[in-house]
Amino acid sequence: MESSFILTSAGQEEVVELADQQKELQKKVPEKKIIEKKVTGKRVTEHCHSGRHSLPLRVGTRASPLALKQTRLFLEMLTRFCPVLRDAGAFQEFPIYTTGDQVQNRRLAEIGGKGLFAKEIHEALSDGRIDFAVHSLKDLETTLPSGVVLACTLPREDARDALIVAPHLMTTFTDLEDPYSILPQGALIGCSSVRRQAQLLHVRPDLNFGLLRGNVQTRLKKLGDQLCDATLLAFAGLKRLSLTERASVVLDPTVMVPAAGQGIIGVTVREDDDELRELLAAIEDYEARSVATAERALLRELDGSCRTPIGGYARFIRPEGEQASEYSSSDCSPELHLTGLVAREDGSFLLKRSIQGKADEAESLGRELGKSLRRDSPSDIFRV
Predict the structure, then answer these.
(1) How confident is the model over 255-269, as pLDDT tens digits?
(2) Full-model pTM
(3) From the candidates 20, 87, 101, 139, which is the catalytic residue?
């Protein structure tokens, strides 16, 4: 009998038995079936098989409501492309409680950085307890462990940050030119992101900050309990959880530069798992991959830790009037615009720059902008 250990939210270990799956699912996926079809303007190949994998394929994910929702969005997209997997009941969610989820009373920088949201998931992938893993890309470190690769990026949801004001302070907001005017003088902002804190303090040095961590619902509850006056969350998460009405103001990326990868779901697999990599390539979103490559190259070049306020946001530039369309690597490469930001945590220094070039040069654009920002920033910004 095969078993695996998952840490519960209380930090205890419980054995999760994986052997009691329905017997009819304990079979090999049908012989390789390749379906090639036209999908919104590009050719894709669906590899509806997994020659060395037994069903169900296990999908690793964090255990938060948002993480589980994102995992189900991924599986819905995958089974839409490969219905034979859906019909076979081919997937099993495998929630994993990470160190980043369990330790809620300290900043990530104090306990090891954002990689703590993925450490246990990487380990489960490497030792074969799961077959692939679903992540919020902004929480995935830029240098992955040996043997683990980012195999797929899904279409980006809204990348903006949302400012949420506590009900006891909420008023009718009309000043779009000054979105922070909704915050009273000296307001207490519940926040764990130095990127958000630095950008807010650069404009509003009167604000105060306190640590607020936890999943989306937990933060909103603490806000409702008046533990702080306002907080900030990724608008993508609110949209995926059908909580957009909780956003008091959605901040344009020119006002607050998002985190690299914000709004993008990324899927990791073992590097040597060619079959799953081919399957996932069928649902890879070219635009999401391009902007993620630029943003992550920027972040990697800056070598920023969770102590370093860094923002990165890339977007495709389309001719006026042209609708968003699905590009493929065979199309003429579109223009990509990348904005990067570095700052001091207290907001006393902030440097924001942009660069533009071809999307197929995303990696080099990110590196070039990162070098420019590092060169012209004080050395203390990048302390370890």
Answers:
(1) 999 999 999 999 999
(2) 0.82
(3) 139
